[in-house]
Design goal:
single chain; mainly alpha; Glycosyltransferase; three-stranded antiparallel β-sheet; globular
């Protein structure tokens, strides 16, 4: 299963790359054209390709050319401060020796744009990840100081007592309602820092976040989308994204399992994988081999989506209620984005022996009714 998913990712990425070398923003089922362009997604694909090469895979992409394109556009207004964390990760993995410059770029962007507290949750994860990889490879004293501050922000003001990470570290209503990306990137970042012995605060905080996520995983293995950090519960389960199931949850939870030796984290990731192959509420195989896509999500239709979110947010803030809603009034988002395949490579390349855990995952799913 995993070998097939990896090869499918290599094949699917090829038509997603534009003539200028940058990967597109999106592709749509039944439409062979690329739509938009994304430097962020190109960074994520590059990281996946680097990981695949390190695990012994060959592919048709020119990693050096990709890096050159990204370096030329490093000052693009499209990129947020958190994206510089991805650049740092690329640099550390490739041994390019540009870490000091990138750290200073990151510091300058943070100073100009509200500092660490203003960063959204996924950006905080990328910043800690990039700095952790840089410092683990011998980064400067300045990188260590910034990593210390970033870990302090993520494990302090950004983390609720129940373990979930807030959407950001400043005031505002949205702070209370983060998404799954905030949780899993934060978990991955802190597990990475902890695994390298870079900060004693990192591993306990990563485990606390992951433990709460495991408690909130849906019966069919799905990972819900929005959370309420005040109550430690699901605010809104939809959309449920395929990339969370087959890539992002495995990225974070496998890293934590390997760092702690606790297989329950890896088993939770495996429970979520079968979701894309039809063990979901819609009984739909999300892998469309004809289009070369993994359909992006099961979601509430647009006419229901905003109404559902507003009503659940209002109920949470006034009544303290929140259960994530029912599994009804849903349809498919028939698109895909290249980062999902980059993260598949990041999650699975080099971890193929972990496929033995699939048997245990199958037993777990079979023992429960899928709602």
């Amino acid at each position: 299963m995993i070998d097939d998913l990896i090869e499918f990712s290599f094949e699917s990425l090829q038509p997603m790359q534009r003539e200028d070398g940058v990967f597109c923003y999106e592709m749509r089922q039944g439409d062979p054209r690329t739509h938009g362009r994304s430097l962020r997604y190109t960074l994520m694909v590059l990281l996946g390709l680097q990981k695949a090469e390190g695990a012994g895979y060959s592919h048709r992409f020119d990693v050096d050319a990709l890096r050159s394109v990204l370096r030329r556009e490093i000052d693009s207004p499209e990129l947020a401060p958190g994206d510089l964390g991805l650049y740092l990760w690329v640099d550390a993995r490739g041994g390019y020796g540009e870490g000091d410059e990138l750290v200073e770029r990151l510091r300058a962007r943070l100073d100009a744009e509200g500092g660490l507290p203003a960063r959204e949750g996924q950006e905080m994860g990328w910043i800690v990840l990039g700095l952790a990889h840089n410092v683990a490879e011998g980064g400067s004293a300045g990188a260590r100081e910034l990593l210390d501050r970033a870990v302090g922000q993520l494990t302090g003001p950004n983390q609720a007592p129940n373990g979930l990470f807030h959407h950001h570290g400043t005031r505002g209503a949205r702070r209370r309602f983060p998404n799954f990306a905030t949780q899993i990137y934060g978990t991955l970042a802190l597990a990475t820092a902890g695994r390298h012995g870079l900060d004693d605060r990192a591993m306990p905080a990563a485990r606390a976040a992951a433990d709460r996520l495991l408690a909130l995983q849906l019966p069919d293995g799905g990972w819900p989308w929005l959370f309420d950090t005040h109550r430690g519960c699901i605010l809104e389960r939809y959309p449920i994204f395929s990339v969370h199931q087959h890539a992002m949850a495995p990225m974070g939870l496998f890293e934590l399992a390997e760092a702690t030796g606790e297989e329950r984290y890896a088993e939770a990731a495996w429970r979520g994988l079968d979701w894309i192959y039809g063990r979901n509420e819609s009984r739909v195989d999300m892998v469309d081999r004809d289009s070369g896509l993994v359909l992006r999500s099961i979601r509430r239709p647009p006419k229901y989506d905003r109404v559902s979110l507003w009503s659940r947010t209002a109920a949470a803030m006034t009544l303290g209620a929140g259960n994530g809603g029912e599994a009804n009034h849903v349809d498919l988002n028939r698109t895909d984005r290249p980062y999902s395949f980059g993260w598949v490579l990041e999650a699975w390349c080099g971890r193929e022996p972990a496929a033995q855990a699939a048997t245990a995952a199958d037993r777990w799913v079979a023992s429960r009714s899928i709602t």
